C-alpha cells in the first residue's frame, strides 16, 4: 500500500510538471507563431522586392547598400535594449516609476547613435573615396530621432508578452519597406530606393506599438506639475537613469558584439575585396539566410520574455531548485523546437538552390559564385539558433558579462577565419563562416547550459524532453 501510494504521488507530480511545461511552452509557441508568421510574411515581401532589385541593381550598388545598412544595423543595436532589458524584469510599480527616466535614456542614446552614424559616414567616404555615400548615411541617421517615440510602448508590449502586436509592427514595417523600395526602384531612384523607405517605415512601427497601448502612470505623476522638479526628484531621476544604464550597457555591448559577429563578414569583405564582391555576398547572404535568421531573431525576442516570465509568475512561490528546473525545461524544449523548424527550412533551401536561384534572380548571378555561396551560407544557419538561445539564457540569469565575453570570443574567432578566407575569395569566406558556426555555436550552447544549470547537473538533457 505504501509503495502504491508513493507511486501514485510520483505520477501525479510528474503529470503536473509535464502539464506546466506544456502550458508554458504553448505560450512561447503562440509568441513564436505571431512573430514567426510576421517574419515569414515579411520575408516573402522582401524576396519579391529582392527579385526586382536583383534585375535592376548592379553588384556595386548592392555593395553600397550593404555598407550603409550594415553600419546602421550595428549602430542601431546600441538603442534596442538599452532600457527594455531592465524594464521587462521589473514589477508593475517599479516599471511605472522608471518609464520617464527610461524615456530620457532612450533620447540621449538615440542622439548619440545619430552623431556616431554621421561620423562613420564621413569615415566611409574617406576610405572608399565615394562622396555619394555621405548623404544616404545622414538620411538613415534621422531614423534615430524617431525611435524614442515608440521605444517605451514596444517595451510594454514585450513585457506583457503581446507578441501579436510586436509581430504586427514588424510585419507592417517590413511590408511597407518592401513595397516602397520596389516602387522607388522602378521609378529609377537608385540607392535612394532602399534608404528612404527605411526611414519612413519607422512611423509605421511607432503607430502600431502606440495604438490602444497607453503607458501606465505612476501614482505621483499628477503632483509633478504642482510641486515642480525639486533637487530630490532630480536626484531620483538621475539614480534611475544610472541604474538603467548600469544594467543595460552590458547587455547592449553583448548585442553589439552579436550584431558585429553577424555582419563582420560584410565589413571585412568590403575592406579586403571591394564593394563589388561585397555586393554579391550581401545579395546571396540575404536570400539564403533571410528567412531562417528572421525566425531566429523572432525566437530570441520571444524567448527572453518567455524565460524571464518565471520571475513574475506563480513560480516565485516554488523552491529555487524547482524554479530552475522549470527554466531548464523551457530552455531545452524551446531550443530544440526552433532548431527543428529552421533545419527543415535550411535543408529545403539548400536542396532547391540550383533550380530557383537562377530562375528567380536571373542568369547574371550565375556568372559569380552566387550558387556556391548560397549553399555554404545556408548550411551555416543550422546551428545559429543554439547561440541565440544560449545568449538569451545568460541574460535572463544576470550573466550579461559572461555573455559579452563569449560573444567577443565568437566574434574574434569568426573575424580571424574570415580574414584568412578573404585572402583567397568570397567562396572561402563563406566556407570559413560555415565551419565556425557549425563547430563553435553548439559548444557555446553546451557551455551556457552547464553554467546556468550546474546545480542540477544530475538531471540529464534527455530527462527534460
From TrEMBL:
Alphabetic keyword roster: Cell membrane, Membrane, Transmembrane, Transmembrane helix
UniProt keyword annotation of Amino-acid biosynthesis present: no
Compartment(s) where it occurs, according to its Swiss-Prot or TrEMBL record: Cell membrane
KW Zinc (keyword) present: no
GO CC list: plasma membrane
Family annotation (Pfam families): Polysacc_synt_3 (PF13440)
Transmembrane segments: 21-41, 61-83, 104-128, 134-158, 179-208, 331-353, 404-422, 428-449
Membrane topology of this protein: Multi-pass membrane protein
Region forming the signal peptide: none
Domain of life of the organism encoding this protein: Bacteria
Family listed: Belongs to the polysaccharide synthase family.
Listed PANTHER family: LIPOPOLYSACCHARIDE BIOSYNTHESIS PROTEIN WZXC, PST FAMILY PREDICTED COLANIC ACID TRANSPORTER
UniProt protein name: Polysaccharide biosynthesis protein
Top-level taxonomy: Bacteria, Pseudomonadati, Pseudomonadota, Gammaproteobacteria, Alteromonadales
